């Protein structure tokens, strides 16, 4: 009887762990257009869902309305793990870097790449239907730094 109880408990734990495995739906709260006002204009992130991924484009707009593409992102599964694959286009931020999803607890997604210069972590937090908080953090020259982006859903 004890063996049966232990076996059932292990099966239940296994199903619980599997149920916690992130799926594409885990990231659906990102879908849509997000806007953050800045001193010099605004930043827009446009997220679209696809069959097996989400993609994003980010633009900076100045006060005159001129825009510059700053980065593109593909959020996809690679070899069983989810990755935030970002390509930067701004001077000093050019190139492609992949960040592995390390946690998706509650309403927060945390991606890491400890080999990257800065940032080493990228996070997104769902703060309701119309608010999204994002931040990048890591070390620069031995000092910890965090930059926060507070987005509103764009109409």
Describe the structure.
The chain is mainly β and 155 residues long. The chain contains 1 helix and 10 strands. A 10-stranded antiparallel barrel has the order 1-2-3-4-5-6-7-8-9-10. A hairpin with a 3-residue loop joins strand 2 and strand 3. The longest helix has 18 residues, at 2-19. The chain starts with a helix and ends with a strand. The model is unreliable at 6-19 (pLDDT under 50).
Strand order of the largest sheet: 1-2-3-4-5-6-7-8-9-10
The residue ranges in which pLDDT falls below 50 over 5 or more consecutive positions are 6-19
Order of helices and strands, N to C?
HEEEEEEEEEE
Tell me the number of strands. Answer: 10
> What's the helical proportion of residues?
10-25%
Bin the strand percentage. Answer: over 45%
Number of helices: 1
**Looking at the structure, what is the overall shape?**
globular
Could you tell me how far the N terminus lies from the C terminus, measured between alpha carbons in angstroms?
Answer: 60 Å
Largest sheet: 10 strands, antiparallel, barrel
> What's the gyration radius in Å?
19 Å
Question: What is the structural class?
Answer: mainly beta
Q: Overall mean pLDDT score?
A: 90
Short description:
This protein is mainly β and 155 residues long.
Based on the model shown, name its key terms.
ten-stranded antiparallel beta barrel; single chain; mainly beta; 1 helix; 56% strand; 155 residues
């Amino acid at each position: 009887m004890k063996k049966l109880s232990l076996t059932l408990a292990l099966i239940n734990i296994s199903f619980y762990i599997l149920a916690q495995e992130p799926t594409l739906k885990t990231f659906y709260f990102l879908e849509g257009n997000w806007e953050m006002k800045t001193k010099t204009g605004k930043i827009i992130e446009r997220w679209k869902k696809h069959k097996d991924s989400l993609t994003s484009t980010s633009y900076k707009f100045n006060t005159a309305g001129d825009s510059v593409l700053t980065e593109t992102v593909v959020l996809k599964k690679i070899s069983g793990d989810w990755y935030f694959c970002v390509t930067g286009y701004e001077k000093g931020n050019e190139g492609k870097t992949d960040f592995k999803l390390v946690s998706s607890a509650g309403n927060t997604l945390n991606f890491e790449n400890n080999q990257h210069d800065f940032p080493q972590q990228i996070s997104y937090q769902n703060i309701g239907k119309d608010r999204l908080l994002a931040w990048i953090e890591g070390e620069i020259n031995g000092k910890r730094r965090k930059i926060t982006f507070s987005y509103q859903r764009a109409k």
